[in-house]
Amino acid sequence: MRNLSEKRVAGEIFVKRFCEKFGMDMNFSLVFSANVEITGTDTIKLTNINPYHLYRIFPEVEELFIFVKYNSNPYVITTRIKKIDTDHIFAEIKNEEIYKDKRRFHRFYFCCKDIGDFSIEKNGKILTKSACVQELSRGGAGILNPEIDTVKEGDIIRLENFEDELSLEVKILYRKPKGKFDILGGEIINSNKNLINYVIKKYIKVSKDLIEKAG
């Protein structure tokens, strides 16, 4: 078991959602912080969980992911929820491994309705006005649209969301199947807004909606 003596750790759970526009299931990431202590060979206790309202969501999930550092290496610990009380959670450690994601800012996955439609422009020509940005971080984006077959690896495209007045210049790095459609993955090379603030604002709104629906 890795070093869990930290006073405070970051954690993550995933909530299943159905995205209606393209008829796809997805997992929305909800992040939290908590105090953690070892209570058994493979059991930990989490207390002072923030945000507290996630207690409404915990009964809907089976696993918690906890992030810690050990010998300067980041680790992710996968745990299974054993018991949920009013002010703490007991969880059983299932697996631990080096956290391979090198991003300094989390990547979040959204449904199309969360952010709205985007237009895609390539070489001065608008290819569509109904694309969906399903993955978004400070430096990358995942774009979903079944109509686009003229965008390939290496292309530079412009994404526009007129409702939010957001404009992104994206270099396409890959194209891969996602369900019935293809997703374009790219590096954001220019933006007219602070993307960290933009993503956090959208994340907070979706999180509130999920918590309210959970009662």
Characterization of the model:
It contains two helices and 13 strands; from the N terminus they run βββββββαββββββα. It has helices at 112-115, 195-213; strands spanning 9-19, 24-38, 43-50, 63-70, 73-84, 88-98, 108-109, 118-122, 125-136, 140-144, 156-161, 166-178, 181-191. β9 and β10 (140-144) form a beta hairpin. It is elongated, with a radius of gyration of 19 Å.
Task: Describe the SSE topology.
Blueprint: E1 9-19, E2 24-38, E3 43-50, E4 63-70, E5 73-84, E6 88-98, E7 108-109, H1 112-115, E8 118-122, E9 125-136, E10 140-144, E11 156-161, E12 166-178, E13 181-191, H2 195-213
Antiparallel strand pairs: 1-2, 1-4, 2-3, 3-6, 4-5, 5-6, 7-9, 8-9, 8-11, 9-10, 10-13, 11-12, 12-13
In percent, how much strand structure appears in the residues?
A: over 45%
Shape: elongated
Overall radius of gyration: 19 Å
Question: What does the oligomeric state look like here?
Answer: single chain
Helix content: 10-25%
Low-confidence stretches: none
In total, the number of strands is 13
Order of helices and strands: EEEEEEEHEEEEEEH
Terminal CA distance reads: 35 Å
Structural class: mainly beta
